[in-house]
Amino acid sequence: MAAGLRRARADVEAEQQPLAIARAPAGPAPALGPAPAADPARAHADAHAREPSASILLVDDDEGGLHALHAVLEPLGQRLVAARSGEQALRRLLREEFAVILLDVRMPGLDGLQTARYIKTRARTRHIPIIFLTAHAEDVEHVFHAYAAGAVDYVVKPCDPDVLRSKVAVFVELQRERAERVREARGRAEAEAIAGTLQRHLLPDRLPQAPALEMAARYRPSEQTAQVGGDWYDAILLPGGRVGLAIGDVVGHGVRAATLMAELRAALRAYAVTEPDSPGATLTLLNSLVARTHGRAMVATLLYMVIDADRRHARFASAGHPPPLLLDAGAGAARMLEHQAVLPLGVAEHTKFESWETELSPGATVLLYTDGLVERRGETIDTGLARLCEALGDGPRGLEELCSHILTRAPGGRGAPDDTALLAARLLEQPAAGSLELDLPAEPESVSVARHRLERWLAELGDGRDDVFALKLALSEVCANAVEHAYGPGSGHRFRVRAERREGAVAIEVSDEGRWRAPRGSQRGLGLGMSERLMDSVEIERTPTGTTVRMRKAPPS
Amino acid sequence: MSPAESPDRDLHTVALAEIEREEREGVRVVTVAGELDISNVGTLEHATFDLPNDALGIVLDLTAATYVDSATLGLLFKLQRSLERRGQALRIVRAPGSSTQRVLELTGFERNSPPESDRDAAIAAIRRDVPLSR
User: Fold this and answer.
1) In whole angstroms, how far apart are CA A77 and each of A3, A341, B104, B118?
2) Which domain holds residue A408?
3) pTM of full prediction above 0.80
4) Residues of chain B that touch chain A, judged by Cβ-Cβ distance less than 8 Å
5) Helices (H) and strands (E) in chain B, counts
6) Domain boundary at A138, A160, A187, which?
């Protein structure tokens, strides 16, 4: 059938590589031009043995090494793509899907281990198996570290061709199965549906939970229905309790815009973790990647902000995006956070993005948004901005309600062709004296949020108790019970925590609306038993409408 | 993207703890820095998978773990049983007086897990206790 054609295409793609090592597999000469009438029997055998269904990425700075790999893997009949550096490999990975990556450990520039780390931090590529290649005995120690970076295997050069080939073949087979499922799904969808789905999936269906930050977001699609816009947002939990907030606008509509968004989002997530302190450095990396991979074909604005709730400050950088707004608790109107907006992403490869910093007071609200919120036909942006600042200042107190309020005040109707996104974050206020109240979704991630908030609350009480760990542990265990046993994850239920100081003792109450279920599994009751040993008293009240656990602990004498 | 592949979950895990694994002298060493609870204990379990049959065992270094919960302990009990059945050993490295040590005591795990103060000692103990020719 079209095997000849496929090979021909593989050759063309290979020629775009700096090093054209991909040649047609040995065997019958590849037919160029129109595909000849198929001999069904041969086509079947051919498809079975050699149909190139998968791409394999070979990364080595040494041309000889690439040639050797090519010779070993050629019999698999798959498409072999060469990259001569880690940077080049990452660029290839932005554009296409690979079944497996063979990665040389020692390379100038980004070495194999660093490259792997990038690959594994990006959501889109982290599933791709990596086989490390090394010629140096002393690399083996490093390769063990590579396991931690998410590698699956390594091979010491010079390697046994049969061993390497069979290792790679396993991953090719896995990829073939996965691709089959994707193809089936695609066959059913129309182009617009794909774009719409893509965008919906790119927007987080819910925001992550951060210990000291409340977040809410809205997305309103363009009212010209058949169009999918390029607005997107994301929230990323970073080490040290920091949170990265991103909002952006990719120029254009439809599948292309949605695909570019996907690339941006994945790359930002990777760089955000590499440069958690500096949004400017994050955008500088991102811009350079975009400019190199897309030339000027992609232009996007982006505002990226890292909030450190513990140190009460926010750092941000802007690539041609409208300014973020800040509303202090109790203030009547919001204000713009001043900065110099540099060029949008993708305009000039060597652009340096600066980080700007602002302090945040307890209860302060930050609003990031796209231009659909401030642009109205026949009006200047300044007018739109002033209206938005006002809407933020006179809105309702609750963050979710505030977001809805802002959207209703935004321009809409026929004059607003653009889609609109907004992302709001609020620093927790000081807890009301003596008590802590939480209302959290019944899911595993909530447990750490509960104990971190308890820890903050205890610290702010300033009692200097030395049993903070015991209180945290007891609370976590009871919350885990509420999540695991009372509902099961993903039920959409919530649970409530209330902690109070009564005559020096700390009283904690955790209540849910689920039916109590006795702990299951071989470690039944391990957690509850721990809580009982840690606290002075633990009482469980079960009713048909829910379960409440009350615990109490006097200060250590 | 299916819910199981949601990157948010992974990132949460990254933020809560870093889990690394390496192989040393026939022993797998798994190191945890940060907090372990029901939301990310699966990642730790994952790091103990595919232990080769000829490996001597697992050293779990919890020196830099700032928090462990009953779900973690549940995994340790389970791991200890399954390794024992295979003639392999589990050693837990933890700082004396640490909160991790406290949880091991509270759950009774301490009784069947001699304290190891550093990973080299733990590796040496496994190499001493587990016969090489099983």
Assistant:
1) 11, 50, 54, 49
2) 197-427
3) no
4) 1, 3, 5, 7-12, 14-16, 19-24, 35, 37-39, 67, 69-71, 73-74, 77-78, 99, 102-103, 106-107
5) 5, 5
6) A187
> Cα(A423)–Cα(A207) distance, rounded to whole angstroms?
10
Task: Decide which of A362, A392, A427 is a domain's last residue.
Answer: A427
Chain B CB within 8 Å of residue A444 CB:
yes
Residue A534 and residue B67: Cβ atoms within 8 Å? no
Selecting from A123, A241, A533 the residue whose C-beta is nearest the C-beta of B7 gives: A123
The total number of structural domains in chain A stands at: 3
The pLDDT tens digits for A224-264 are 544 566 889 999 988 877 999 999 998 876 677 777 888 88
Tokens of A515: 């039916």
Mutation pick from B5, B8, B28 vs chain A, by most beta carbons of A within 10 Å, is B8
pLDDT in tens, A68-122: 899 999 988 889 999 999 999 998 888 888 889 999 988 888 888 888 888 877 8
**Closest approach of B87 to chain A, Cα-based (Å):** 21
B contacts of A526 (beta carbons < 8 Å): 70, 73-74, 107
Strand, coil or helix: what is A354? coil
Q: How confident is the model at residue A185 (pLDDT cuts 50, 70, 90)?
A: low
CATH of range B3-129; options 3.30.750.24, 3.40.50.150, 3.40.50.1820, 3.30.360.10: 3.30.750.24
CA torsion through residues A29, A30, A33, A36, sign: positive
